[in-house]
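#struct-help
A.M.: can someone run this one for me? Single chain, 402 residues.
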Amino acid sequence: MISVAEALERVTGAFAPLALETVALPDALGRVLGEDVVARMTQPPVAVSAMDGYAVRAEDTTAPPVTLQVVGEAPAGGAFGGRLGAGEAVRIFTGGPVPDGADAIVIQENTDAGEGTVNVREGVAPGRYVRRAGLDFEAGWTGLRAGRVLSARDIGLAAAMNHPWLKVRRAPRVAILTTGDEIVMPGEMVGPHQIVSSNTLAMEAALKTFGAEPVNLGIAPDDSKALKRLAAGARGADLLITTGGVSVGDHDIVRQALGEDGFTLDFWKIAMRPGKPVAFGRLGETPLLGLPGNPVSAVVCALVFAQPAIATMLGRENAGTPERARLGCDLAANDERQEYLRAYLHEEPNGAVATPFQTQDSSMLSDLARADCLVVRPPHAKAVAAGESVEIMRFGPGRLGL
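D.P.: on it. C-alpha cells below:
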C-alpha cells in the first residue's frame, strides 16, 4: 500500500491545465477563469452624486439656512455643462456627474425648493455624497485573477469592467463506468440478489460540482468483453473513472480485462479508510481512476483524488483547502491507514465542533448524506480527546461542492 499523500501526488502529477475557451459573460457562471481580467475603464469615470439633491460649493452652506440660485440640473446619463459659481446650486440625481466648481451634495430631504432657488437647511462638508472618479476601480486594475471559480458577483464585476466575453478553462470530460452484475439503475426491476446503483448518479453529480462534464458510459456486467466495449467509449475523455471491480475478488475484473486493451497500472491499494482498493493508471492515452464499489468509499475517494485531478485540469485556486475544527468526542488511536470519518459540524462561539458518527460503515450512504464534513485522521495518529483540534474537509458550496 502507498500513502494518500503519495497517491495524490501521482494522480495530480498526471494532469495539466486544459486549453482556454472564450464564453459569453452570461455563460461564465461557475466556470474557472483562465486569465486575469483587467478593467477597461475607470468606474465611475467622473465624480458623481451618491444621492438625489443639489450639487453645491460646501463653503456656501456653512451658515444655514441659506438660499442658493438653481442654475441647471445633472441627471444620470447627462451633465451640467457650465461651472458652478458662488451662491449657485445644480439639481442633481443619483449617478449624475458633479459639475465643475461643486464639491458636495445636499440631499433633497434637507432642502426646500423654490422658484429657481433652493433653501438649504443643513450645511455639508466638502466631499459629502460625492463618489470620486475611480472610487470603485480604475482602468488597468486587475479585478479577477485566473483560477477563480466565477460567481454571480464576479459576473457583475466583469460586466462593470466592460468585458462581454471571458476566457475560461475547458471543462474536463470525465467518463464514468460502473461495474457489477448486481447493479441496476434506480427505477429498474431489482432482482433477488441485486442492488440499486447509487455510484453512477452520485459520481455524475460530484463531477458537475467539481467543474467537470460527466459522460455516463453505463453499467458493465462482470464480463470482460462487455467491460472492454463500454470502456472504449472513454476514448477522447480527459479521465475515466470506474467504480467497483478493482479489489481482490474473483469477479473484480477491471485491471485484468482492460489490461488486455493496453491498461497500464501506476498504483493499486492506498493506506486509507474508506477506500483502500483504489487503482490508477492509463487506458491508452486516457488516465483511469478505479474507485471502490462501496458507495461511501467511492464518493470519499472521488473527493480525495478526482476532485484535485479536475482542479489541476482547471487550473483552479484553493480547491478543497482543509480546515480545522475542535473534536466533539474522544477518538482512539488510529492504525496505518489515513481515515476519513463522516461527522456532524456545528458552530460554537469559539469555533466549529466536529463530532464523528459512531458507525462508519462504508456502505451507509445515509450517514454520508447527513454529514457536514469529514474528519481526517493521519496514519498512526494518537488518541485524541474531545476539544482537541483536528483537520476536516467541509462539505458545501465553494469547498467540496457536495
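A.M.: thanks! The chain has four domains: 4-16+171-314, 21-40+141-169, 48-131, 323-394.
D.P.: also worth noting: The chain is about 15% helix and 30% strand.
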